[in-house]
Queue: 2 jobs
Job 1
Amino acid sequence: MPAAGSVAVIGGGIAGFATAILLAEAGVAVDLVEAQPDVLALGSGITLQGNALRVLRRLGIWDGVQRAGYAFDTLGLRAPDGTLLAELPDARTGGTELPATVGMYRPDLAALLTKRAAAVGVRIRTGTRPTALAQDTTGVDVIFSDGVRGRFDLVVGADGVRSWTREAVGVRLRTEPVGMGIWRAFTRRPESVTRTDLYYGGASHIAGYCPTGADSLYAYIVEDAQDRSGLDAGERLATLRDLASHYHGPWDEIRAALTDPARVNYTWFEFHLLDGPWHRGRVVLIGDAVHCCPPTLAQGAAQALEDAAVLAELLLAADEVGDGLWAEFTARRLDRARSVVDASVQLCRWLLAGERGDVPGLMAGISERVAVPA
């Protein structure tokens, strides 16, 4: 018998759906609740490194990811004028049978996860959220905003950076700005874009792009963090296009395709890490609820998926939810997540300070670590 026969997963992102799928396909009764009414309408592009692909294959959706996404095995470095400085082989952290990286439209990934979750029996409830939670030594009682009440052997809080679940169990975690802001846009892919290229320097810290499908990509520019909240949609688009005008090569084609203000957004880089056990009794936190970092290493989705895979493995192998299970979960996840958060933030600090730093060494070290299954 699994350690938990009934589980509530709070949050319909990557970590939540992955946990729900792995538990449900083993016979656990899983309720997944998401506050947003439509999980398929959230986000634009996402970069999936090999160690993320390894878990997606375990979830049974790899064929769909291959069809919908765009795979590549190299990384380009360019000067602001578009000159290709280097084409580097990217580490295949998921093993030699998987590509190094897949870019994908995030709603397409959400659709694959949702379909798979429904197929294995997850009860998916959108447009609802927990409003109260109380636990004892044998289970957790949860009240939801739609009036439904439930008792579960375990609650998994996979509800993001501003996690309600984290607050509900009394975990205080400070989320700090890094000092950088990122413009993102989703648009048409020019034929010249066949992988991620990174432009360092110029008018901004980083300009880059990632193909997400046969006809799409997402592009991004990283600047010093600024208050951009006063800009309307048209002004946001104009600002991004102005910043992009300092970069050339494929960026010239991308900039010409940036015409839809609704496909542009701006956020600040943030980070946090819960340095200690990620559970409180029979409530456990995973994904962005306990570790978030700038996307400088493109490991956010991968670390969330690894959390889910390790948690499900331990729950299905254990006889009870107890100290031994949680000690092993902490041992397998905390230091690994810490290394990714620290390295991601370090890259930003080097850029902010104008320091060269050992970027290749830092990136190689993380790639070597995450290539070993979590």
Job 2
Amino acid sequence: MELKYLNTFKIILETGSFQKAAEYLNYAQSTVTFQIQQLEQELSVKLFEKIGRKMIITQAGKDVLPYIDAILQSVQQLENYGKDMQQITGTLKISMPETLLTYRMQPILRAFRQQAPGVKLSVQALNCYTIRNQIVNGGADIGIHYDVGGYGSTIMIEKLATFPLALVACPALGKQDCDFIKTKQRKSVCLITNDRESIFQKMFDNYLKEQDIVIDGIMELGSIEAIKRSVVSNLGIAYLPQYVVEEELENGTLKELKTGISDKKITAICSYHKNKWITPAMGLFIRLLKENL
């Protein structure tokens, strides 16, 4: 059995399609298809089935996944046996939301690169619920995200830090639009977000619903920085982790609006699959997280 076939199977699951796996591996798509066909013949099971235009993993594929993970992890253990941190190699796949990646993670990434220069870091900025699902299906080695619950017995989690949330606006915003305490309001202000499904956006949406506060519209932008610039320009309001807007609150380009939200905090956690071997690279990254986040 070819190890590269097992690796290709994993890359398909991680990237979401045969085509994306081929691009990641620098293969022709026909090569990816051939390798999976060969693996299916050797295992005497169907690993993927076509539903519509997508190739979906079968139940048999899900059943053999833990064994494939164990083989690939054992190979990585052997490759790094006896090496110190400066010598270890491999890839560490990490997923986290954009807020943490942009505003809290730079010192940790820098320290990791200095201590484990031979390890290739693959970092994705994703929604917290998507990250949770990635950890379940093996799409990431480590998830760093806000606690959204629903982990079941297969995911190990470690608490990292708790962050306050803040509703922010331009200081020039009209007095009436700044009131988010009074109930039963119809407001002309626009809410600016980069992800309607983020945990803190859902918290704010629930508060508005409870208070019967209806806002004029939603503006979805591609980045947190774009959101901040738009709020500074008085295009709307935003509900964000406070550390994201600390500088703007201090220099007065943004102001915090009062709300009646009882729990204005979110907790960042580190998650990984319970069956995953904690590689030296994973162990180092988790330690740096605990020390620096």
